[in-house]
Amino acid sequence: MGRQRPGTPTLEEVAALAGVGRGTVSRVVNNAAGVRDSTRRAVRQAITELGYVPNLAARSLAGHRADAVALVMTEPDWRLFGEPFFTEVVHAVGDALTDTPVQLLLTLVRTDTERQRFVEYARGGRVDGVLLMSVHAEDALPDMLAKAGLPTVMLGRRSGDETITYVDADNTAGARGAVAHLLDTGRTTIGAVSGPLDMYVAQCRLRGYREALEGAGVTPASSLVVEGSDFTEQSGRRAMADLISRRPELDAVFAASDTLAAGALDALRAAGRRVPRDVAVIGFDDVHPARPTDPPLTTVRQPLGEIGRTMVRLLLEEMEDSPAGRRSVVLPTELVVRDSA
């Protein structure tokens, strides 16, 4: 269970550097009494210098397993925790842990200081593994956790070359199918409201939009694409207003999330456009927005329940053992047709 990864510092190496015995290092790691303050400082300095991570199996056998995992969102705005997508993920992960002794801790990591502080907290034995969501392309936290030897599973990925274990939906295929549906129903000028393009999920959904158009012999126009600053309704509202001013003749829009689509519906209503008669709208995720949309939203369903269960399964497996290399699971999506398209 949780054996020390090859190449990582050992308890014996920490003891040698600190000039103490192996048992003393173990007592310091487990915050046991009976160690002089000067010795405790020397051991902790050696742990820091070597980058030592306590063996989870030994701690478990000694009764020091944390029996907790952290679900971390790396967004600068804590209010995004209240967005429907994130609440659905939290529920899915929590449900998947119901029949285990593992507690779920929720945290928000926004700055480099908070990243370092969280890694130190996690490697100090407070959690046995980490689930990450909403990770942007240049975020170093997944690599920091991997370097610390902490079992980690991501929802989504930072790029097509992700090195950390992840679970994702087939975002490109889902977006491609949504836009193909718009084309099949006779729409000819189709706009896109993307998410922030420093996130791979937004890149994939925009790629699917373009692939569907190209497959139908339509050249994607840059004037028909607006990048949202995030995945909120406010962002969708602003982006849709921009699209209407750029291309007033558009007759459909693909939004990269349901919350973006809800904002787009507001902007279309404010501009006097009827949905779907004048402009058809499709979202992505199939989560319930803070308020029902009018008309009900056609969307691409990603299986959030299965995503949450799969993330938990992979993390528990990594906590019990150390699989060779990162693993990945990509789950299919489904177009759900309602009144908006």
Polypeptide structure, described:
With 341 residues, the protein is of the alpha/beta class. It has three domains: 11-61, lambda repressor-like DNA-binding domains (434 Repressor (Amino-terminal Domain), Orthogonal Bundle), CATH 1.10.260.40; 68-168 and 305-331, Rossmann fold, CATH 3.40.50.2300; 171-301, 3-Layer(aba) Sandwich (Rossmann fold). The protein has helices at residues 11-18, 22-29, 37-50, 56-61, 84-96, 112-126, 141-147, 171-184, 200-215, 233-246, 258-270, 304-320; strands at residues 68-73, 103-108, 129-133, 152-155, 166-169, 190-194, 225-227, 252-255, 280-285, 298-301, 328-331, 334-336. The protein has a six-stranded parallel β-sheet with strand order 2-1-3-4-5-11, sandwiched between helices. It has a six-stranded mixed β-sheet with strand order 7-6-8-9-10-12, with helices on both faces. Mean pLDDT is 89; it is low at 1-6.
